[in-house]
Amino acid sequence: MPIEGKRYLRARKLLSDVTAQLEALGMQYHLEGGTLLGLVRDGDLIPWDDDLDISLSSELAEAFVKRAAWPLRLRGWRVSVHRFERDGVGWKSGQIRIIKIRNRRWIFLRGSLCLDVFPKYQVGQDVFWTAKKKVMRAPARFYQGCGWISFHDRKLAIPLAHEEYLSLKYGDWRTPVRQWNCAVNEGTVVGDL
């Protein structure tokens, strides 16, 4: 479901609530995927993108769940944690694979709006993460420090050398592509999960 109208306003609130919570806890994060692409290329969220994406180091993932999940739930968001079922490149079984933060639909049901938090696992000079049952890899230098981008009344963290990072992920990232599947099209895919 595309991000537009009331959904767009909820998406902005979700991104603001999560990044504000990370900043209040002193946890470094970066915008990721289509969220980063839209804000850098268009200055806004991509209308046809169906989710939001951020990343943080794997060392912060457990602390984020312990310290940020409850405050986000009090704000009305649904937080779920998905863990690895077996060891992989840089991670062990039981470590966090992805954190999904969604709007609530009624009291117990999850809504269609989602923000994915991708823990990045560093191995040597690279970081690894997973999405859609694929293993992704990028140079760790993109995540050592951050730049900033303005979005409405906020400054949000983006990877260093973000244009180079977007080129790695998307190739010609300046040209909008409506049909995109990170498991097939993304330049960071290195194998199956």
Termini Cα gap: 26 Å
Order of helices and strands: HEHEHEEEEEEEHHE
Text of the CATH class: Alpha Beta
Low-confidence stretches: none
Q: In the CATH scheme, what's the topology name?
A: Beta Polymerase, domain 2
- Count structural domains: 1
Radius of gyration computed on alpha carbons: 16 Å
Residue share in helices? 25-40%
Largest sheet: 8 strands, mixed
Protein name: LicD/FKTN/FKRP nucleotidyltransferase domain-containing protein
Domain LicD/FKTN/FKRP nucleotidyltransferase: 24-66
Descriptive notes:
With 193 residues, this protein is α+β, with helices and mostly antiparallel strands. It has one domain: Beta Polymerase, domain 2 (2-Layer Sandwich). 31% of the residues lie in helices and 36% in strands. Strands 1, 2, 3, 4, 5, 6, 7 and 10 form an eight-stranded mixed β-sheet that branches. Helix 1 crosses helix 3 and helix 2 crosses helix 4 (162-170). The radius of gyration is 16 Å and the shape is globular. It starts with a helix and ends with a strand. The model has no long low-confidence stretch (mean pLDDT 92). This is LicD/FKTN/FKRP nucleotidyltransferase domain-containing protein. Residues 24-66 form the LicD/FKTN/FKRP nucleotidyltransferase domain. It holds the Pfam family LicD.
Task: Give the SSE layout.
Blueprint: H1 5-24, E1 29-31, H2 33-41, E2 52-57, H3 58-74, E3 77-83, E4 96-105, E5 109-123, E6 126-131, E7 134-139, E8 146-151, E9 154-159, H4 162-170, H5 182-185, E10 189-192
Parallel strand pairs: 2-5
Antiparallel strand pairs: 1-2, 3-4, 4-5, 5-6, 6-7, 7-10, 8-9
Domain LicD/FKTN/FKRP nucleotidyltransferase: 24-66
InterPro entries: LicD/FKTN/FKRP_NTP_transf (IPR007074), LicD_transferase (IPR052613)
Protein name: LicD/FKTN/FKRP nucleotidyltransferase domain-containing protein
